[in-house]
Task: structure prediction
Amino acid sequence: MSQLAVLLGVFALFSVLGANTVDNLGRLGITVGFGYLDHPANFEIGESLVAYTSGDSYARALGVGILNTALVSIIGCLLATLLGVALGIGRLSANLLISRAVQLYVEVIRNTPLLLQLFFWSATIHALPGPRQAFEPLTGVFLTNRGLYMPALAMDGAAVFSLLLLGGGALAGVVRILVHERRHGPMERAAKTALLGAVAVLLLGVLALCLGGAVSVEPPRLGGFNITGGWVLSPEFLALLVGLVINASAVICEIVRSGIEAVPEGQWEAARSLGLTRGRTLRLVVLPQALRVVIPLMTSSYLSLTKNSSLAVAIGFPDLVSVVNTSANQTGHVFEAIALMMAVYLTISLTVSAALNFYNHRLSLGR
Amino acid sequence: MVKQLKKIAFKAQAAGLAAALALCGLGFSSSAEAGETLDAIKARGVIKIGVGGNSPGFSAPDSAGRWQGFFIDIGRALAVTVFNDPEKAEFVNSSPQQRLPALQSGEFDILLSGVTQTITRATKLGFHFGPVVFYDGQGLLVPKKLGITKGSELDGATVCVQTGTTGELNIADFFRQHKISFKPVVIEESNEFLKAFASGRCDVLTQDSSDLAIRRTLLPNAADYVLLPERISKEPLAPAIRYGDDRWLEIVNWTVYALIEAEELGITQATIDSFLGSDNPSIRRFLGVDPSLAEATGLDAKFAYNIIKALGNYGEVFERSVGKASKLGFERGYNQPWTQGGLLYSPPFR
Result:
């Protein structure tokens, strides 16, 4: 009952605040509403996953921002997890050199502000040579202060189709193995090899098929002001990604280390007495148990990585915050812009935490 | 460095929060301040003026930490009109992205930081503009070695733009008009913005041309860069205030007009006292020798005299801060009295 009263109170407070704000904005001649989202945005966005030109609507510009934020966050979380887990294991290595090096890394990264690190990466990438003097570590791969250029694969519809088919087949094979192992325990090594082999042969066969002209490689070339063609990762994206991954990996390293250390010593001893090697013990005995400790903490590092990506505005990557700031500045719809931004970040956060909570629940004992 | 970083971190991470707070401030404070900006200034004893941080020539602290520049002098002229004391002006640094919400939320009484007067800002965003104090246009700064002579040759170029300005829209319009493409790199923080250009991340730096002239002096090899002659937009820079205080707006208007009128009448800081004995009625009225204007306007009869005595006329302010003799070396261009072919025109002091 009292909870209901509090809820109503909060609701009333927000209504009063909201009405007051709308009222005051109205008096200043500012109308509140999302109608402006249909209007042409009239500003360009440097990079976009979907087609966008300055004549497109604010809604589309916002979509571009959301996708950019999502892209850097998703890739960032994946890479940070891989790097973080490797570092966490390295931190516990019996080799003192590795363990101390990781410790140093973690201390340096965790004790400096992320923004400073982003500026550092941004400056490092800007210090690369310009397009005309591009650094070419591999043929067709250019590393310049305009970004990382790689040859792009150009393929026709049939090739795309067969590649999708292949990917699907490979995925089905792996899932098949996983499901089998879950139900019946480890699969016979021979059966597993046979299955994977079949998938591989299929893969090579179709690959050869589409390499017969359907797929071509488009290398980047120097032309005009810039290198054109190929596939490019912008310096801002790279700087942001590297900065976020390195920053988050230091945190994840500590999470993984604490997770592993939380597994009782007896588990290690028991595994050793069964004759398991250190690597197998880690993989089959310790890590699965450590996961229970690790998952909730990982949730929060994924969330902070996503939110930290908003620092992109300082180094020029057009993420959600950057696009929202520009639209708010140009239209004066600050209130709506902030509301949209809050809604997007809230949705991302709740989705990530719901997914990981679900996973955590499945892992927990006494299910 | 660390202080600056903290500031940027705050700005970037809490851009949302700041704007939200600004809106909260709006909700509570504007009802109390509507029509009372001038009362608040008088009660406080000082005018709070929003300026754009490090723009030597327009607004920047000198080596002694004292604010100097074109906009600063106009701010001090306002303090003379209101308090007869040029020191009763307090300058508050604000980035292009933050300045309009900050003005709206009452952080300062007037914004003098190169804000372009536009219809959207005037009708929809709730800002009144005083007279244009500087006629500017958006320019394009490019490295000499590119061999570019006009903007339409820039197809495919990468352009560094600072966010929160009208420049972001103008550059998109410009490339659309010419049916050529470009890639923007949009950066909020002004040092990073310049660094990106200096390192060759972009081919073009775009901003109001006055601002580009300042940036150029800050580049390591200023001589390697050239400001293209064309201007891709009109940028009339004017003081901005909030809606709701007509009296304050008129004080801003006539303070600026006093500077302009003095130059038209040929009155300078050095010669002003010799004009006190003039028998030209408009000069007598302007300088308050004839006190009839004081009764009509409710302002100090000698407010214009005090302004010119303390700071000089428009031309003097211009020359001292940004003119030929200064580091920026601007031509007067459009910023000349209408009598000399410029756009500066003061309504009559009558």
Notes: The mean pLDDT of chain A is 85. Chain A is about 70% helix and 10% strand.
